[in-house]
User: What shape does this take?
Amino acid sequence: MRQLLQLTLDLFDPAPPEQPPPPPVTVPGPAAAAVAAAPAEPLDAVLAPATFHHPQANRQAVLGGTFVAYEFKRARRRSIGFSVGPEGLTVTAPKWVPLGEVDTAVQGKAAWILSKLDAARERHERIESARIAWRDGAAFPFLGEQVIVVLDPRGGGGATLNTDAQALPGVPRLTLHVALPHPAGPAQIRDAVQAWLMRQAKRLFTERLDHYAPQLGVQWRKLVLSNAGTRWGTAHSDGTIRLNWRLIHFRLPVIDYVVAHELSHLRVMDHSPRFWDTVATVVPHYAQLRSQLRDEALPPW
Assistant: This one.
């Protein structure tokens, strides 16, 4: 629930006619002291506290003045676990841990929980603000640049990227001419753009795999485009590389980091220091690129 504070200022109402000042009122001493000492209403009583509510919430807590309804689960584990995802907070505890101990642990992790919940909410808002309204003139990211969709019923089929346009500062210079009539619906436009993006992803990812594999001394055998919700890529010991097609939204250095990451797994199948040293041999600034991959909000499809 969003906190809501609405203040209405009637700035444009006509000023009332001037009235003569009222005569002074004499208040006895004790009453005057009581009026002077009347405290202002606390801010906490005016502003509703922030709230977080997991859709499967079955327990709740107030952490630093913030109401948190969270999902609580029992599981076979050694200790109490905390995880914060797009839906909110989930707390998992062994069957033998009493609820009072769980409540104490939640309070003890209050600062961490609130920071993660705030970050998750901010990311969700950024993702929603990036949601694309699929129509003529819609914009989507491609290799770190904004591309404008142009419905072109005269096109010969498919979609064609125009890179020759001279744009004004701050205006996207790329246009994608999609062979669809102007009455085309949002789903048609989205599917046509996605098909074009996946073709570009297949071509570019293959090129970058061929570029980095010799440098790392490995050989990849098969590229599979994925649409995983939480993984950008995976590598299998048989040489199969899976890369999320939506990486095509990012700048080339970010794509190169993911490609090098997965190829490095063909040498080191874990995330040990030796693995990261392997990645650094071809992408020295991988940590910065990894942060961009994590923090940048892409439009939901």
Notes: Residues 51-129 form one domain. Residues 186-216 form the longest helix (31 residues).
